[in-house]
Amino acid sequence: VTDDVRRVSLGGIDATLRWQVSRLAWRLAAAGILAVVAGVVVARPEPIVVAAPCLLAVLVALRQPRPETVRVLATVSELRSFEAEPLDVEVVVDAAEPLGEIQLELALPPLFEVEGAAVRQHFGVARLTEQWTVRAGRWGRWRLGPLHLHARTRGWAYVGTAELTLSELTVFPPPSRAREVAVPPILLARVGSHVARRAGSGVEFAGIRSFAPGDTVRRINWPVSTRRGQLADLYVNEYAAERAADVVAVVDTTADVGIFGRSSLDLGVRGAAAVVQTYLRYADRVGVVSLGGALRWLAPDVGTRQYYRIVETLLASRLDDSFLEPELAHLPPQALPPGALAFVFTPLLDPRAVEAVRDLRERGHPVVVVDVLSTAPDEVSPPQRPGGRDGRRQVRARRLATRVWRLERDVLVHGLQAIGVTVLAWDEEVGVQLDRVRLEPLLRGRP
Amino acid sequence: VSAQRSVGVWVVRLLAGIWGLGLVGAVLLVAAPNLRWWVGGPAALAVVLAMGRGRLVSFVPWAIAVVTLGILLAANTGRVPIPTAVVLGLLVLGYLLLAELGDTIDDASGRISWTALAGWVWSMLPVLGAGLMAVLVVGAAVLVPVRAGTWLVVAAPVVLLVAVVVAVRRKRDREGEGGGREGEEREPGEGTSGRGAAGPGAPRQGPAGSGFPF
Considering the entire predicted model, what is its pTM? Predict the structure, then answer.
């Protein structure tokens, strides 16, 4: 990290320390008092001499100044970051007078990694500057910290503690690396980046035709015109129009299975964010639908602001345990314009989500289902192997149930493919393989 | 990042253990021969166990308790000369400080740089100085053959001087704290219990557990 990185100051604060007598002071006092008692018991001065250094030391240590507050200034390199992106957290502690020890411990949310030690300590300083490099392992809104501050006075007779909460950190899903995308069969009339089937003013060569009044001279195909031999009959190049598309990412929040950080909802949000970012790069209109206990959507739009709006919506995604059961099978037309390409991220566990996919296809939307189920039933609850005939029978029953479950799932996927839905499996390395998406209607020639 | 030379916590714990065993050895030198096993065995065992990291139970207080018992028994038979008692006092103090340093490093990163070690010595200077001063003064007081009345004449002015210094410092500190309040001009009827009241009774900004403003 270079020094010219722009840092976000979280402001300074006077942290009030809760002081209490330290373990060392108690031990010194106890050792001294024991020795004094020993001297009194045996009526000899020697144990008093042994006790003297401990007692005077603890008295002097207890007289050392202890500041009521210390100034803490925290800065973070960014308040918004992507997953696995390094962030610098810098904390400056400033005390009015030198302290025996200043210790800082940065506690982080789960799936956060910190480079180096999370606990830093210095002895005999009045000012301390520490920097941590932190990487977030999961998208979402997190609170950095708490920052545990421990301080000791000179002589270590008092220990002061304070707990400080740092700022809120917004972690976005990782950015998309896809370069090629699937183009929906129906494109908008708006100018975009996708090559359309009709002729227009793009740059992709589409064919040649006879010259017509109004054609520019630059478009005349001179080799073809001269080869035909009749100068009066000129031919011009035709180019394909470039049009934009409507794309909607649908995230199924009706079920969330798998380990935290790799669950179906985690993968769904990551995939949706990648799709959104990729299509927005092509100047397409992109929207998002959250399919769960409450149906939420963001109508398609263009631009970088739309990306942040969508990601903010996605970050609020969580498993909805609502007692209300909204009509999920029929998504409102405002959320999905006619002909919009729909990417549905679902573990295909809830029948309502499957029904919604079928409904989308029946309404003529090209649909790509990304199966984000990252775990199987036998992985969730591995079969135990108790001895005896009953145990073996139980194991066999579990295996059979898992096979039936897999077969039913295959049937479900084949059923979706039969109605023209493209089903993709989540790729552990690249997520959604957008360059490998083959939309069924295009291959079969049916719009 | 500059690579600073550092020592691990086990070095500090080993040093504390050696120091503690030295303390036990010094006690054994003055203990009666028939008590050496009874005192030295448990004390050495406690010191050795204290070298490990006891999350639930610390053996340092046990070691100190057994050592003190040994000193009591030795002193009862008059086998502890004053110079040896001085050394024993300093050994007890050093052992407690080193054991505390080991525990503190173990709670943090498990290593300590030489710079930090120098800082620790600096932060412990008042304690070390006081300990040394105490054994010298008390040892001299016991060793020097002066009558009690003479000691009273010498000690009384010193105690009085220390008391005056402490009282003056306290008064000065109190005046420093209350100076702001006395200097404030108040309108008639103005109270200090309202919001934004300044002074010792006012709520402080940023108590423990509060968050940073955005």
Answer: 0.71
